[in-house]
Amino acid sequence: xxxxxxxxxxxxxxxxxxxxxxxxxxxxxxxxxxxxxxxxxxxxxxxxxxxxxxxxxxxxxxxxxxxxxxxxxxxxxxxxxxxxxxxxxxxxxxxxxxxxxxxxxxxxxxxxxxxxxxxxxxxxxxxxxxxxxxxxxxxxxxxxxxxxxxxxxxxxxxxxxxxxxxxxxxxxxxxxxxxxxxxxxxxxxxxxxxxxxxxxxxxxxxx
Length: 207
Description:
Elements (H helix, E strand, L loop, with lengths): L1 E4 L5 E4 L6 H11 L45 H13 L4 E7 L6 E4 L2 E6 L6 E2 L13 E6 L4 E6 L6 E3 L3 E2 L4 E3 L4 E4 L2 E7 L14
Parallel strand pairs: 5-6
Antiparallel strand pairs: 1-2, 3-4, 3-13, 5-7, 7-8, 8-11, 9-10, 9-12, 12-13
């Protein structure tokens, strides 16, 4: 073991091969500092690291909530065909439009056969607009005859009468041609035909 002084005047030991223990320790310390190439596990000094998030199949970050997917109901199919069949079981053949009294401006469709008029929800022509003088059921009946393609109005079973215009009571069935006003209580209905001699749903080919 030889002895010599360093630059600062301190005595340092040198082994037989001339290696400086203090210099060896300094080299070792420098080689183990973070960011050196000799330390492959150390992160790069002064450089931020960032992980790119992975995404799942619906495009949301893994582990997070998936994106909302809006799925529209497919058009057509058995459900739409069933709805169309229900409408064609009772196609519109005309309307009555409220032109006077509670519910003015409302319209109600008419169908094949007998159209019972009243305030009850089960009536084919429900006029539940607040006119208490209209009977709950069968105040009057408007009939469409698909064979003769004609319309008729007749009084139902209510105690209050049905009138054509304001003062002509309906005591027996009366044929309607379009544009007539039917009065029930304080309510006046204008009759608007759709089917008739020139058109009926029977004229259309089956689809």
